[in-house]
Fold this protein.
Amino acid sequence: MSVPIYRSRSVSPYPGKTTSKRYNFEMPARLFFRSGLTERYRGLREVLEDWAQNEGQKAEGKVILVKPNCVSAKVRLASTHAEAVRATLEVLSQLRPKRLILGEGSSEDTLRAFENFGYLFWAEKFGAEVLDLNTDEFEIRYIYNSQGQRIPVKIAKTALYSFRVSLAKPKTHDTVIVTLGIKNLVVGAIQKPDKPKIHQGYPATNLNIALLARELAPHLSLVDGFEGMEGEGPVEGSPVFHGFALAGSDPVAVDAAAARLIGFDPREVGYLVFCARLGLGTLGEREWEILGGPLEAAIKKYRPHPTYEEQRRWELLGTELSGKL
């Protein structure tokens, strides 16, 4: 499958076409996996090279957006590690991209986060542009509030019209149980001050992530499981040494596999269930081909967020949200 480069009709760098709301995947979905890692960079590079050798043609010649997770500009444990940025830019720079962009829309100071976490060195080394998605051109998309009313949010154009790469780490979450590749890209693409609008209670928040994922799901997801976060994530949780790396082109399969690796049933994660219903990827393990070893030996049960039981109530979609998928 070749992934088209989507272009907007405006004066942005991507004139011509609009985004597609459909994702098509080879079956079974291929997941590139390593466990038992003792060195973060090497493991991440290996799964990325495996992906590039098998599916890298999807990104060749494209505008590539590499999106780390900088939910905090100060807390390193909550954010993508610089070695993940290094490995990703190194491998993708070899695919002759039209442009290589390291971009994030942090709720704090994006460029300060990049400086604090050591990303800028690797961006310069591998010729990547640096972009605060909060300052990008934008388009309006609509999500729902807790009463089922449509509300507008500004979405960064570069996120809409690029080959999207999500660099996530496995973390428990205070609203959607776990945060992984899809949520990292979707929420990061919403510009300030609209970002808080995504949070509309457990049912609507999960629904909103999935609806925006129709245009914002990653084309390549990398989960850096060398060290994760349990408990009071996504910022104030505790570290868990885990030692795995996972990558793939099916964003639902990657997130579902990562959820299993940290001890959660992916069918408990509302936005993953909704994304699967929307045809954005595969939730069932029988539809995956795991290259690099079985998941089972690497599963480690993370302590969930204290509100975990309440978060599971996303399934109780009220009549105000029924029929929105």
Observations:
- The chain has one domain: 29-315.
- The mean pLDDT is 92.
- Residues 29-315 form a domain with the Rossmann fold fold (CATH 3.40.50).
- The longest strand covers residues 220-230.
